[in-house]
Design a protein that fits this description.
Length: 397
Amino acid sequence: MYNKKTVKDIDVSGKKVFLRCDFNVPLDENGEIIDDIRIRGALPTIRYLLENNASIILCSHLGRPKGKVNPKMSLKPVAAALEEFLHIKVPMAADINGPIAQMMANGIKPGQVMLLENIRFRPEEEANDPEFAKSLASMADIFVNDAFGTAHRAHATTAGIADYLPSVSGFLIDTEVKAMGRAMNNPQHPFVAILGGSKVSEKLKLIEKLLMEKCDTVLVVGAMSYTFRKALGGNIGNSLYEESMVEEMGKLMERAKEQGCNLLLPVDNVVADKFANDADIKVVPAGQIPDGYAGMDIGPATAEMYARIIESARTVVWNGPAGVFEMPNFAHGTETIAEAVAKVRGVSIIGGGDSAAAIAKMGYSRYVTHISTGGGASLNFLQGNVLPGIACLDDKE
Ligand code: ADP
Ligand code: MG
């Protein structure tokens, strides 16, 4: 059972908090933030700490600078965005755990914040170097982890630092874990999962977990459905599929049957003669994709059938788009599913970066119980994996 302390379980007044956030925002070529949802996701914890008289050393990574300073991945745009949201100064320490950062950390007063430069400018972060974690810990009294997006990584500031400080979660991690935990551990039935996206190998463990957790129906969509279809001996044309997974998927379908789980594949597909929106497009029965064509979306009959099943569910977990939704001609399946998920009377959980982006683009976000902010982390969590960034936190008494 999930039993970790949050910022509400400890006294933060007058304390210096090392707050690990996920400010890994997408930047355009001018360094402007394209989507600030991750910054906004961190605000409740930051505001709570400031209102309760703590001072905060903020820390995050951005991109994959691989242990080297890379000005294109500086957190400067994040500092500017935070200043606008919080209406306070957000000074930065470029040397991370060097003398300037130490001096700034010494000087901050309750109600003030500072931001360390991109923590992945230092190789010790991803190496989870204990000395590095210890020197960062020495700047603070408490470690708060609110970086759900990196909770599946054991890095110096997501896990290692917890060895040296009292450690609790922020509100974002707490909300994520509780919402997804409730859906997976105690689901109301019918429990329907929609699984799609590009690679079945990435999601095999999730499918197995869902079968184990007595999911009533698994609706397979997206590119991964062609690997299943191939296992049944259908013609999939040029569709994306994983040869090495075909046999495994055949076995998985058998297992689903044995366990009384209704694992459904698309009955029709939208196919195209090239990977482009202006391709020659047809709708064909599943397993009868002509040579020279590739499956790009679930077909209209599948979308209708799936929508009815989704709408009557009490618990829905959706991970992975139904087609190449980035191209308008292949977005219909994903749109239909998004609409059906928005209508669910019960718990609806969306994990996965692209699925979350798809539902946000369609304007249905507010009709969903929970949209996870962490792509890889949510997939890991839903699979039942222990996330090091959460396991390292102190248990409630
Ligand atoms: P998520 O981020 O939600 O977990 P994935 O990353 O697994 O989802 O997959 C999303 C990607 O899968 C999208 O870029 C989408 O275009 C692609 N995709 C979905 N269906 C197909 C298909 N039939 N052929 C090729 N790519 C597909
Ligand atoms: Mg993705």
